[in-house]
Amino acid sequence: MRTLPWTIQHNLKWRKAGLLGLAALQKTLAAAVSWQVAFLLAGTEAAALAAVSAVIVLQVTGWQTIQKSIERVLGVIIGISISIGIVHYLGLQVWTIFCVVFAASIIGICIQKQGAYMATQIPISALLGLVVGVGEESYPLLRLLGALIGGVIGIAFSILLSPPTYAHKAQKTLANLLQEVAQTLPTLADTVAGSVASSRQLAIYEHMHAVERKVRASERDLALGRENLRFNPWGRSLQGIVEGQPHMLEMLEKLTRQMERIAWTVSETGNSWEEMCTFYAWAKRYAELLRIMGEMLDFVGKRVQQVSLTTSGMNYKLEIHDENRVLAQLEQAQKRLTEEEAALLKDREETSVKQQAKPESTHPSYRVVVRSSLLLDLGRMLDDLEEMITTVRRWQAGGVSGQFLS
């Protein structure tokens, strides 16, 4: 993966430190403002409860803060209602406490899928309303008021003081994945060309499988990035890009799956693969196609990285492949793939009428099957790459910055 210049790395470190400070400032301001508002409305006790609620509901994104605020308020309402209802009719006894906590726990378990935090708040609020509310009848109302004030103010500060940090991180994650997969393609090309010993073919397949798993695992980061932009007024320039990330990741996942299939085909062929590479030049031509695809994928990764840096406010121009050159490579690869498919069809027809007189042990029909499988995977990879190049060009032209246009 390409190392960023020192100035960019230095700026990123300062930016990370600034974000940590901003997160602390969020909680501080939310707690202070919540305390002041609740104090003016209902006094010191409500102020303390509101400040606590504001700190609790604040999450890494505005959308998560909204969800937790709603769950906290609903949990308090349900819990307080249970305690007030039971105490009103049955009074405060040991078995009353048992009934309150049991009922609140059952309700919490039943609605846990709708909100895990709400499920934990119900028995807590019920018990506090039952025990504390005996000495101070206004406590249930104050707890609810504190949850409402703290939740609303926490949401306000979470939205207003939440830069699109995770959206930028998702873009960086995608760029790193693209370039990492691009770097594995030359290794796969060497395997297809017969330059890798048969004893290492299984290890190459396992590596490709690990790369595919890593691509699938990155979905969480991209989902958090999309969530970071919900109700976020500072991330509008990234909206179109982040919405296109799932499609880009889907294409990358399909690409790595085809790479894994190619590695598996070579590994399963075993010693026969070295024999085929020795007698036939088509394996080296397939390997060259993989190397060209690696260059195209590297282009996509660097363009995504460029978009990520620029939308972060860093004016840095990456030295990347010329776009026209990559488009020419794509056209050339498609043409060569068509030629290889025609050559395979011709070889298949010849194989059906006679056996070739070459000194080899591999059966001709088996060789045709292997070639067909590889060409099918190469064709799918090329289709995925074409879609990825189209997507990143659309990002360039779609409004992040005019400087991306070639």
From TrEMBL:
Transmembrane segments: 40-61, 73-89, 95-111, 116-135, 141-162
Main subcellular location of this protein, as a coarse class: membrane
Coiled coil recorded as keyword: yes
Domain Integral membrane bound transporter: 38-156
Keyword Nucleotide-binding: no
Cellular compartments annotated: Membrane
Entry coiled-coil feature ranges: 320-350
Keyword annotations: Coiled coil, Membrane, Transmembrane, Transmembrane helix
One annotated Gene Ontology cellular component of this protein: membrane
Entries under Pfam families matching the protein: FUSC_2 (PF13515)
Membrane topology: Multi-pass membrane protein
Descriptive protein name: Integral membrane bound transporter domain-containing protein
